[in-house]
Every structure is written in structure tokens, then in C-alpha cells.
Amino acid sequence: MQKSHQELWDRCLHLIRQNVTEQIYKTWFEPIVFESYDEQLSTVLVQVPSPYIYEYLEQYYVRLMAWALNNSFKANVKLTYRLVVDSENGKKVDLEGERPAAIDGPAPTKRANQSPNILDAAVPQELNPQLDPRNTFESFIEGDSNKLPRTVGLNIAQHPGKSMFNPFFVFGPSGCGKTHLINAIGVECKRLDPRRRVLYVSARLFQVQFTDSVRRNTTNDFINFYQSLDVLIVDDIQEWVSSPKTLDTFFHIFDHLFRLGKQIVLASDRPPVDLEGVKDRLLTRFACGLIAELEKPNMQLCIDILNSKCRHDGLKIPADVIQFIAQTANDSVRDLEGVVNSLMAYSIVYNTSVDMHLAERIIKRAVKTDNHPLTVDDILEAVCRHFGVKQQDVFSKSRKREYVQVRQISMYLAQKYTKMPASRIGHLIGGRDHSTVIHSCTAVLKRMKVDQAFKEDMNSIENSFKLKQ
To answer: CB under 8 Å to 325, separation ≥6 — which residues?
Structure first.
């Protein structure tokens, strides 16, 4: 008798399978386990692996299931779900299914005559992965600050979903290379196996798509699409901290992909523990793979990145200028690239070579930071303003006392607050040689010891830099 009941249930599944896509069937109906059929109560008892599957079936497929049950067992048969609510302790709960108002046949499709959308793809199809082909592992320069995330990322790309690094959660400040790294993972995955369904999506776009699916009553299509992926890459997930509905939906997508051994890659500007508003059930899942930090690039990595970009763009920049840029524009990789792009533009438009003076001007205007390094231009401007002298007069050959004083003070402060050699300082301040710079520094130091008014002038200028003595 039990065997015949099982056969009736198999027939029920067969009818359902004929009315849904294969992906939907495997996702929502294949996990159902037939438990028993009570003829006296006319009730079919089935077990489902999670409360979410129960909720989803009841929300979207209650009419289809009732129709299939009535055709397989008998009219007005009831469905009861047995939910596993605590797998560790074997705790289960039975919930009675809802009866639909009408069960003449499977629910018809309601979205006719609408343009296709990639989120409607319930079965595997050609998919634009939304990856930037320029962001590869080859162009991701390795250094001490990114060695671990890069190594792990490459391992994941070669064996997606099969390593212990799933999910892979990478975090770090803006501009440290997170987007480049997670893009590189996706690009490499597709290169090794073009058939893989890989998708890169920003958290904001994911949220917009989800909101749109709710408005159009197509949430099931949205979820089915994301659950059909082999590799899901989501950038800037910190933007979800104030969106509980988006987080709940992502949790179920995450759970499904993780259960099937699909690779999940996430990026954020902060570690999971600092994602306020994210429920513990999702945070614990983030932590079950690998959490890796991308730090700001150190000096050597900045130099390597700059040299690599110069080779790629065919731009020649002197080594001392490279070092200066690495010292002063090292808050992010984007700052470094932006400075090189600006130098290249100035070099082409004005047909001039790249030198320290041009680099200082670019950095002063392009890189904004509270701890902006002091440049020779900054010093000259402050000293000239204090004494009411024009810079072109300082650069002239005039030996007038006020011009010589401004020139010497500027050289002294440049030596004190920049890391430039004396020869470079002299070149930038009127084309003088290094001996003139050394003489000027000595003269300023001697005068500060015996001239209180001069020393107060120096203090006033240095205070205008907002630097500590």
C-alpha cells in the first residue's frame, strides 16, 4: 500500500514537472520528500528541508500543487508540510498547506506581451557576466598588502565552488583594488570555462532589480535567475545594511547557491562584523569561508603600480617623480592612476616632458586629502603671500634683499618639509644649484637664532601650513 502511495506522489511530481521549467522543478520540488498519505483524513504529508521552501511553495505554487494532488490522489486532498526547524536536534514541525480557491488547472502565465528580461531566465542561457575584461590577475600588481587576497582569488577562479574559500569575502578602504580583484576572479572563471554562468553585480543594481521585481510581482523570476548562477560576485554589499528585505532575499539566494556548491564572492568597505543591520544568520554564512582584507598599497607597491601603468600607456616618467607620486598620492590605486592619466594628458597637449614641477601641480589639484603633502609650490605661495612678493620676482636673477630673503626661506622650508634633494629644490626655485640651497638653509638657521622678529615670521608661515613644528 505504501508503494502505491509513493507512485501516486511520483505521478504528482510528474504533472508538476510538465508545467514548470526544469530549473524551477529542481530548485523547489525535487527537494520535497514524500512521507505518508492518510486516506481517512485525505492528507498528504511531505517533508521540506527549510521554512523558506515551504513559504515559497505556498506563495507561488499552491494552486499548481493542489491541482496535481487532486489528479494523482483524489479531489480535495489536503497537503501538510513537515519542516526541519532544528537539524542538529532533529526538531520538526508540521504545518497545514493552504487550499486554493480554484484548482481547475495549473496557473497560467501572466506576463505575456512583455519584453524579455535577463531576470526571467529560469533555465541556463547565454549570459552577459557584466565583467570588465581589463581587470585581470595579470594587471593586478601583487604586493605585501594584497598578496593573500590575490592568491586566494586566483585559487577560487581556478576551482570555483570546490575550495574551502566559499564564500570569499574581501574588504578594504575605497580604492585599494577590491573591484579589480573580484572582477579578475570572474574573468578568469570565464576564461577557463566559458560555459560557466558568472555574473558580477553591484549591490545597488541588485537592490534596484529586486525592488523592480516586487513592483512587477516577478520576485520568483528574480530569485530563480540568481539561483541559476555558477559564480555570483557582488560588490559594495555595505549598501544593503539599511535594506532588510533585500538582505532577506539575498540570504535565500546565498543559501541555495551555497548548498549546491556554487561560488560566492563578496566585497565590502568593512568587515562583516561592522555591517550593522545584517542579521546573524547571514553574518555567520559570510564567515564560514574566508574573510580577507585588502590594505592600502605600501610605498613599493605604489611604485610597482606606477611603473606598470607607465609601461602600459607608453609614458616615460623619471624615477624620482615616480617616487614622489608614490609618496604623496598613495591613499588609493585610483589616485595613482588618476595622477598618471593627468600627467599623460598634460604631456601630450603641451608637448612637454614630465618633471617634478608638473607632478606637484597635478597632485595638488587632483588628490584631495586632509593630510596632503606639502609641495614646493605650496611653500613658495605661502612665503610670497606673507612678504607680499610675486613668484616671478623670486625666480628672477635680482639680488634685491626682499627677493633673496623669500628665496632663502622657501629653500629652507622646502628642505625641511619635502624629501627632495637640494639639487631638485634649487632647480624648482629659480634654477639655482644645490650649493645655493645649502647656503640658504644655513643663513636662515643662523638668523632665526639672533633675530626674534624673523623667527616670528617663520613661525607664522609654518603655522599657515597647518603643520606642527
So the answer is: 302, 306, 317, 336, 339, 340, 359, 363
410, 441 Cβ separation under 8 angstroms: no
What percent of the chain has pLDDT above 90? 12
pLDDT at position 168, please?
92
Using CA atoms, how far apart are residues 354 and 154, in angstroms rounded to an integer?
Answer: 36
- Mean pLDDT, rounded, for 259-276: 88
Give the Å distances, CA to CA, from 352 to 164, 169, 257, 319, 347. 53, 45, 55, 17, 5
- Cα separation, 83 vs 391, in Å, equals 80
Question: Inter-axis angle of helices 376-387 and 452-464, to 10 degrees?
Answer: 130
What are residue 303's phi and psi, to 5 degrees? -65, -45
The H or E element containing residue 169 is: strand 168-171
In percent, the amount of the chain with pLDDT more than 70 equals 87
Contact residues for 268 (Cβ-Cβ < 8 A; gap 6+): 169, 170, 171, 236, 237, 238, 275
Average pLDDT, the chain: 81
Q: What is the end-to-end Cα distance of the chain in Å, rounded?
A: 93
CA dihedral 462, 466, 467, 469 (to 10 degrees): 50
Helix axes of 333-349 and 299-313: crossing angle, nearest 10 degrees: 40
Collapsing DSSP to helix, strand or coil, 78 comes out as strand
* Amino acid at position 12, single letter: C
- pLDDT tens readout for residues 319-338: 888 887 777 776 677 777 77
Please enumerate in sequence order all residues whose Cβ is within 8 A of that of 66, keeping only pairs 6 or more positions apart, or say none: 79, 99, 100, 103
- For the cut 60, the answer to whether the pLDDT of residue 463 exceeds it is yes
Could you tell me the three cell numbers for 336?
595613482
Contacts of 387 (CB under 8 A, 6+ apart): 402, 405, 406
For helices 178-192 and 147-158, give the axis angle rounded to 10 degrees.
20
Measured distance CA(89)–CA(104) in Å, rounded: 41
**Residue 371, phi then psi, degrees to nearest 5:** -105, 45
The Cβ of residue 295 has, within 10 Å, a number of other Cβ atoms equal to 15
Half-sphere exposure of 29 (CA within 13 A, CB side): 23
Strand partners, 34: 46
Say what the pLDDT of residue 118 is: 44
Question: Which residues make Cβ contacts (< 8 Å) with residue 298, sequence separation at least 6?
Answer: 143, 144, 145, 330
* pLDDT tens digits along 36-82: 888 888 889 999 887 767 777 877 788 888 888 888 887 778 888 88
